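Cross-posting from the modeling subforum.

Setting up a comparison between two proteins and wanted a second pair of eyes on the formatting. Protein 1 (sequence, then structure tokens):
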Amino acid sequence: MSRFGRERDAPRAESKDFRARPRNGLARRQFAPGSGPLAGNDFNGLLTDEKYRRNAWQLSGSVTLGNHEVKLGGSYDLENPNRTSWYNQGEAIFPSYSPDGGTVLGVWHQYLAAYPLNCKQLWDGRQGDFGPVPWYDCATFQPASAVRSDFRTRNASAFVQDTWRPLSNLTIKAGLRYDFQEFVHTNGDVVLELTDQWSPRLSVAWDFGGKGRTKLFASYGRYYQAIPLQFQALMMSNEYRIFAWNLSPGPDLVGLGGAVNFGVYVTEGLKGSYQDEVSAGAEAQLGSSWSVGVRGTYRSRGRALEDRCDRYWPSQGIYDLFPPDNYQTCALVNPGEGGRWGEFRDPADPRCFADYPTNEVPIPCETVRANRYYRGVEVAVQHRPSKDLYLQASYVYSKLVGNFEGAVSSYPSGTYQ
């Protein structure tokens, strides 16, 4: 999924939960100079073994009633992915060196926690089995050598379409489609259901010359977007990644704490993402081997379904919306809808960002919805000089504007803009 708008580059502000604490148990592995996989070419990143299984069933049929042809159908998909993750050397360790490169100033640790979460050591040094305490109270979570996630997605759809020919040179099609998605977590809980996804469709084609050589046409349709499998894994897996900063190589010095990164928080009242499309044009055959056509297309984003990962940005003011025992750093929202969850300042309005991060209090700006508008005109010419040769030339003039990149991000995986 892409990111809605762009947040200005700024360091994350320190909050009350990110304060200096005693070094006891700050990271799972104690750093000592000259030991551990700290340098060289050893790969100690995250590895995954993923398997995706999909079973799909479809059924459709049609019946002719006079000058009407009615078609009905439906489909059901059951997706059963599973994913096993592990760090190649148990954890990923990245050292921070002094400017001259001769001294290790601190170490960044990443490791996987066992599910369900079990805190093994609190910040005050007490050790035991404390269970899923808030991440800012826990110095060390019980690690896992590997984590397996099995989750399910159910997709169902149904449609009806009527093709009506009131005249020999006039065809009208009207239809309605319904889509449903259900997402089931590894623990069996339903984390999200997308319902009320109704998609009307209408098209008209008229042979105004009456001899099958001309056509005027127009159509309208609404199209819902299914959530991609990779993003589903963020909602439904039990993969907790622990990030811990050890800002000193010695056990008696002061360091800065850690955090938990675990998928996305699914907010209440979410609705599916869709776009509307209108198209119209004309085609005509000229002579026996030439034809020309022109088509205009307009697309608009009606609603977006996006993840926002600005939980710890003071300027956004959404930290208190997360439940106290929640570990996610991101939330799934409908930009511009859903109350404070969907509040976004217009990324194209410089007044909304003029004083950030100098002033952590956002300038009053009206929230905006995700919008994306495409307008295009295409002119096409076809020529068949012989039965074995076909030539086509076309020219498209289009314009795309908006504050939302769309369903597919152009940025490489793992980058944030």
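Protein 2 (same layout):
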Amino acid sequence: MFGLDRTAVAGFEDSPDDSALKIDCLWPGKLLIEMKSRGNGTHKAFEQALKYYSLLPSSKLPRFILACDFEYWYLKDKSDNSYYYFDIYNLVDHIGLFGFMTDKPQRPYSNPVNNNVSEILGSVYEELEKNNYPSYQARHFLTRLVFCLFGDDTNVFADNNKFQEYIRNTSEDGSELGHSLSYLFSILNTPKDKRPTTTGSDVMSWPYINGALFEGQIDFPVFDAESRRLIIEAGEPDWSKVSPAIFGNLFQTVMDQESRHELGAHYTSEENILKVIRPLFLDSFSNELDDISAMDNVDSKNNKLIQF
């Protein structure tokens, strides 16, 4: 893919310590690859790769370890303990991660859907403001809405587009939408065995969402045709590809400068957050997990994993 002659940069089936152990592929200083047959999982390949890594001289230690079972890919950057896990079908979305092969900066994939969704939700917020809906309740409402939109494409509601269809089944002028959402949010906040026995099967099929997101009644705005259209439009992108950092983008997009100053709310990118929390505690956790994964004794390893 990158125009490199693999035999010119990497060795295959080399031993890390002059023993019978064989590394599937080693590009000294760059990359160690360990493969397993499809269906065997990347964890076995990664455990083996870590053992090889520990036996290599410092002059050959690679920055990256790739474990793969021909279906799933697990790439770990040993310089900062960051890692990426994805399947073969999504390789195209993560190809930038392998920029190190041509000495280009590592570039995690950024999906333009994120920005598009932020803009649409910003428009929803503006519509709520026009109708004098309290800003603190608008943020609460949008948080619930974001969860439902994300859940609609990630099997939280069992059937994809279930929430989208629920919205579309309300009147086009938007007059039913507020009441319908209020009712749905109360259903999502109620365990199935606590719901009224008269609840219809279509409503009973919605799952119970714990965690208090839908607890408490909030005022709902009177929607019109435009605000209903915007909510439907917000559900059209594939939310399974939307980063959870959307909450940060949401603050940045929908809140004006005065509000951000008042609440002390500002958006910090995922990348910059990780720069802080990786050396703070994530790196030590990651290193500990690597050490446990490389243990030979299965019983001891299992006990350590449970403790971990």
